[in-house]
Amino acid sequence: MYKLLRSILFCFSPEGVHHFSMNAFRFLCSTGLSRKMLSGIFSSRDAELTTGIFHLEFQNPVGLGAGFDKNALYLRELECLGFGFVEIGTVTPLPQAGNDKPRLFRLPKDKALINRMGFNNDGVKKIAMRLKEWKEKNGNSRLIIGGNIGKNKVTPNEDAWKDYEICFKELHPFVDYFVVNVSSPNTPGLRELQEKESLRKILMHLQMINNGKAKAKPILLKIAPDLTQEQIDDVIDLALEIKLDGLVATNTTISRDGLITNNAKITTIGAGGLSGWPLKNRSTEIVNYISKKTNGSIPIIASGGIFSAADAKEKLDAGASLVQVWTGFIYEGPGIVKQICKSLYK
After folding, report:
1. Domain limits for position 88
2. Total tally of structural domains belonging to the chain
3. pTM of the predicted protein model
4. C-alpha to C-alpha distance for 309 and 212, rounded to whole angstroms
5. Is the dihedral angle over the CA atoms 199, 179, 328, 280 positive or is it negative?
6. Residues 201 and 163: beta-carbon distance below 8 Å
7. Among candidate residues 57, 62, 123, 71, the one with its CA nearest the CA of residue 336
């Protein structure tokens, strides 16, 4: 059924379809009865799936990666689809429009997407208010919410720590964990912040603020799949040194190796981060490397090329504690969480 619907949706612009689809689903979720019915269809309620990590209890280990619900607009709808956790953002201090359109492209032959969104979001003040309202209206919800934070495009790298501080403080009361995003390829110069000393400055500053709170929130770092082994080792060393709560592996890649899609089309699309099936093996390699290098002492959320229970299990067997889908959600449809959960521990 979804394959037929997807063939129709894929006739239209990816970004437009995204908003149309989620707004349509919001309408379907507009009554308590309809939400209960949809949750019954799409949610998996097996207690065996419950995953405890970061001093949090996830109803299942399958989450939605950052970039899908940038502005925390669809939490109710995504909860109905059975996600164990949803990562909102990337959130920046000031609202920003992002890069010029078109900026999201499908590669159906490769089961992939290319995006150069550029951290388009409503800004931390508005998103924090939206999360506050969500918490007040949905006090019984067990949905875990992560806050993915970044810097504004106009902020120079030497002042980036200030942007992360602003977002951290504003979102702290309303999210369950944080992910520091320095690995998106779509904000000029951002990946330079992955260097060890730049990371140390940002992360230690956030940890200092966190330790002063009545209840500290887990802080994770999202890393790029394009890091060299030496750079990954630097991240691991720093994470162990400062006792970072965890890592998200991985963000999108700037590589175009091994794609089936015609080179002319790839060239026409231009710059952006590639996600989906082509990222699967590299993401698993990095998860496996980090897990073995640290003897499993650093919790990992795995992201990249997860379309099925087998893909999710591969990541978990490699050492991940949780998994995130994004491109797989687009290609496999709203039943992806239940499909994965149904087969994950069988």
Report:
1. 2-344
2. 1
3. 0.97
4. 40
5. positive
6. no
7. 62
At 19-38, the pLDDT tens digits run 999 999 999 999 999 999 99
In the annotation, is 321 catalytic?
no
| 113, 272 Cβ separation under 8 angstroms | no
What tens digit of pLDDT does each residue of 288-299 get? 999 999 999 999
Give the residue among 187, 25, 22, 20 at the shortest CA–CA distance from 103.
187
Write the CATH number for 47.
3.20.20.70
| Structural contact between residues 29 and 76, judged by C-beta atoms closer than 8 angstroms | yes
Alpha helices (runs of H) in the chain, residue ranges in sequence order: 2-9, 14-28, 32-42, 75-80, 124-137, 160-171, 196-211, 229-241, 263-269, 280-293, 309-318, 327-332, 336-344
151/306 Cα distance (integer angstroms): 28
270 and 217 Cβ atoms separated by less than 8 Å: no
Q: Which listed residue (184, 291, 303, 321) is catalytic?
A: 184
Question: CA-CA distance, 150 to 87, in Å (whole number)?
Answer: 13
Question: Of 273, 272, 279, 229, which Cα lies nearest the Cα of 258?
Answer: 279
